[in-house]
Amino acid sequence: MFLKLLITLFIIVIVSSYVYPKHFKRKKNKIQCNTKRVPLSVNFHFTRQCNYECGFCFHTAKTSHLSSINDAKLVLKKLANEGMKKINFAGGEPFLYPKYLEELIRFCKQELMLESVSIVSNGSKIKQTFLQRNKDYLDILAISCDSFNESTNKKIGRGTGQHVAKLCDISQWCHELGIKFKLNTVVNAYNKLEDMNDNISKIAPFRWKCFQVLILENENGGGEGTLRDAREFIITDQEFEEFIKRHSGQACIVPEPNNLMKNSYLILDEYLRFLNCTNNDKTPSESLLDVPVEKALMQAGWDQEAFIGRSGIYDWSRQPSNICGSNQAKELAW
Fold it and tell me: Which CATH architecture has domain 39-309?
C-alpha cells in the first residue's frame, strides 16, 4: 500500500513538471496580451483648416498640410493591423475636403472592415447627397453645437446665424438614413447658464458629449505663436457640474471634464503623428510612416485606462439603436 502511494506521488510530480509550466506560460502570455496598449479608437484630424472661428478651438489652423491619400491609407491599415476598431475623422473641418473624406471612410469600411467609422463636423458644409451616398460606410455623424441661441453661437465664433437650422436638418437626415446622430457641446462662459433640455429632446442624439472648455498652451493659451486665446471662455469645475446637473435628465448625456478629456484621446494629426497632450500642449510623436505603431504609442501620452473610464467604448456601430440614451458598451468582436 505504501509502495503504491509513493509511485502515485512520483507520477504526479513528473506530470506536474510538464503540465504546470506550460499552463503558467499561457496565463503569463494572456496577461501580457491584455496589458498591451491597443489603439482601439483613433481620432484622425487630417486637416487643421476650418471655415469657423470658434474662440476656444484647441486644434487651430497652424498648417494647411494634407497627407496624400495613399499615405493616409497606409497608416490607417497599420493601425487596423494593431487592433484599431473605430476611426473618427475630424479637423479643422473635414467636409472642406469631401472627396478625400469619402474615399477614406469607404476604405475604412470596405477594406479595413472597421466596426465603426465616424465624423465630427460643424455641419455647415454637409450635403444630404453625401450622406445618402455614404450611409452604408458611416456609423456616426457628430455635429458640434454649443448653443441653441444663434447670438451665443456668433459670440463663440460658431457660424453666422444659421447653425441651429442646419443642425436640425442634419439630425433629420441621419435619423432617416440610419446613421447614428451625435452632438458635441463645449461648455464655456457663454453657454454655461443655458437650458438645452427641450432642444436636445427634439433633435434626439443617441449620444451627447459635453466637454468642459480646455486650454492647451500652444494652441489656445493666448501666448506667442498661438492663434486663439480661450481664457475668456474658461469656467470653473463647479460651473461645469451645474450645467451637467441641469441636463441630467437626458439619458444620452456624457460629461467630460478636463481631467477626463486631456489624455484619453488618441489623436493622429495631419502629418500622421500622434499628439501628446500631457504637458498642457501638443507634442508630436514620430510619424507612423516612419516607426511602428507600438513605438509611436509610447510617445503619444495616451491614457488607455482614462479612455475606458470616460466611456470611450460604447455601442458605436450603426445597429441596433439610434435613439437618445443608447450608450451601453456592447460585446465588441475583439
Answer: Alpha-Beta Barrel (3.20)
